[in-house]
Amino acid sequence: MSVIAEPAPQLTLRAIVLSVVLVVILAAANTYLGLFAGMTIASAIPAAVVSMAVLRLLGGGGILENNIVQTGASAGSSIASGVIFTIPALVILGYWQEFEYQWVFAIAGLGGLLGVIFSVPLRRSLIVDQGLAFPEGKAAAEVLKTGENPGQGVKTLGIAALLGGFAKLGAASGLRLFPDTAASAAWVGKAIAYMGTNLSPALLGVGYIVGLNIGIVVLLGAVIGWNIAIPIYSTFFLDTDPALAAQIATASAEDAAGMIWSAQIRYLGVGAMLIGGIWTLISLRKSLFSGIKSGFDATRSGVTTVVAHTEKDIPMKYIAIGLVVFTLPLLWLYQSIVHQWTASIPMTIIMIVAGFLFVSVSAYMAGLVGSSNNPVSGITISTILFAALILVLLLGRDSSIGAVAAIMIGAVVCCAACIGGDNLQDLKCGHIVGATPWKQQLMLAIGAVSSALIMAPVLNLLLHAYGVGVPTPEHPNPLLAPQANLMASVAKGIFGGELPWTTIGIGAGIGAVIIAVDSWLKASGKKFRIPVLACAIGIYLPIELMVPIFLGGLLAHIVERKMGGAKDEAEHGKIHRKGMLFSAGLITGEALMGIFIAIPIVVSGRANVLALPADMQFGGWLGLLLLSFIAWLLYRYATKPEEKAL
């Protein structure tokens, strides 16, 4: 049987360089967005559009070369998600005062590489044999195949990025033309009525991308926390906490609502996320076992010789070598933390087993419902819970290092699971366009290491400029890092920490009710669903972050209704992609401006270094006008024919 020749260049130097540049940009942007709002965005399609435009200018830009660029670039989002969901917990726990470069690089880089290794054997089973959908991979393939006007796509991204960046520059951390939020609160008897919205175009873009269903669900969670739980607590239970009651006695209604949320109500979200994470794994048990079985089946059959370039994976002997090479440094890292081989060796074994298990689950779920709906948070919570319980037996419940050790295990598994799902999406795209799997797998490894290299500097910049996770006198309104806060709470609670377990238990009960309602909706065949983890995030975060996400989802729904008049499916898809690109530009522009603004803040040591004089600062109405204008532009661009847009 003869070897089938490869049709076109793929892993070229220019493709690698462009991919690494995009990795750095997208990893930094998603790091900011994830710490700010608890969400990240898939970046394959924006990366593909940029690649088609840039490589065309350089005299290349074949479909396989562009596919390599988007493959590597998408790793930036995946590593950013794995890192921000877990590693900030080490700062929140007080183990680190800042993010230590070599440790962050080791956890993110080795976790990402293990994710690539664990997912290689899954390609044939999930993509070829089972033929799972992998929706983002299909969408990226369609963008690559059509190649429609990439210059216009880059223009869309650029204009939207400038708008998002300008809005961030004008907000409270920059020029202070307007505040970050427009909010209002009042006392109604002993209860507090509160409503507000963040003025972030990035959150509007997030809402447009996730859609109306998720937008409604996260806002529902916020209403449960802020408009139901806070009034109930302030009316009936505030007297049970004299210290908090004394603080609130002299505070405004808006500040009082924030104090109650911070001290008690956000832990409802912790309880809901805990029960949601456990339920997610229970409800996915069939998929879980199918994914694990596929992994072992594919591993056993991985030695099969293939000749078509479209079926060439990284050889299994290199996978085995890589597993040993990448695991040994993690064993040393764990040993340097606990200083007990009787603990560090079990930690490493847990990491390997959980890593392969959950990479299989992540890849399988990415194939069924897409990476955006992949339950990585639930996977990580379960890993940390299991690891912490084992470490309690090995180190004792009073161990000062037990919570940190559990987070370290969870961080590696989380990075691996994020990369695993992403890898299979990219390989699905490559399978459709006729790419060579091993070249994509190598590019994803390059992308994972490249993004790991810049994670610590970006995290430290954001930490020193804005604060992360925990309010301090210097940073009273930090980037909230919701998932990392949750991981820290879970680990700390198991190792002798003091948490409001009653509130967490009530939150678990709320989560159980949400699960029951969602199960009924599913059984009834309803299109509208209430994912418990999305609702829990809404409870856990300030309501003002959820309002623009809901508005973005509503705008996407209005655009969808408008799209109903499109002449054909191709026109339908084109309009949808334009809105997605515009939203991605808003997110990227605001996130990158947030990082750029952090530089003078850190250098000068003053949070108001860019602030204009007080007489040039306006109220929230200016931010509302700007946000409304950007929403109008997004709608106009998404619904106008290509030649008439902007």
Give your account of this protein's structure.
This protein is mainly α. It has a domain at 13-156 and 312-394 and 413-483. Helices cover 73% and strands 2% of the residues. The chain has 23 helices and 2 strands. It has a two-stranded antiparallel ribbon with strand order 1-2. Strand 1 and strand 2 form a beta hairpin. Helix 5 packs antiparallel against helix 13 (316-338) and helix 5 (101-119) crosses helix 14. The longest helix is centred in the middle third of the chain and has 36 residues, at 201-236. It is globular, with a radius of gyration of 24 Å. The protein starts with 12 loop residues before the first helix and ends in a 7-residue tail after the last helix. The model is unreliable at 302-306 (pLDDT under 50).
Question: What key attributes describe this structure?
Answer:
646 residues; mainly alpha; two-stranded antiparallel sheet; 23 helices; 73% helix
Q: Got a strand count? A: 2
Question: What general form does the structure show?
Answer: globular
**Count of DSSP-assigned helices:** 23
Query: How large a portion of the residues is in β-strands, by DSSP E?
Result: under 5%
Q: Averaged pLDDT, please?
A: 82
Q: What summary fits the major beta sheet?
A: 2 strands, antiparallel
Tell me the strand order in the biggest sheet. 1-2
* Radius of gyration from CA coordinates: 24 Å
Structural class: mainly alpha
Helix content: over 70%
Our measurement of the CA-to-CA distance between the termini, rounded to an integer number of angstroms, reads 54 Å
Unreliable residue stretches: 302-306
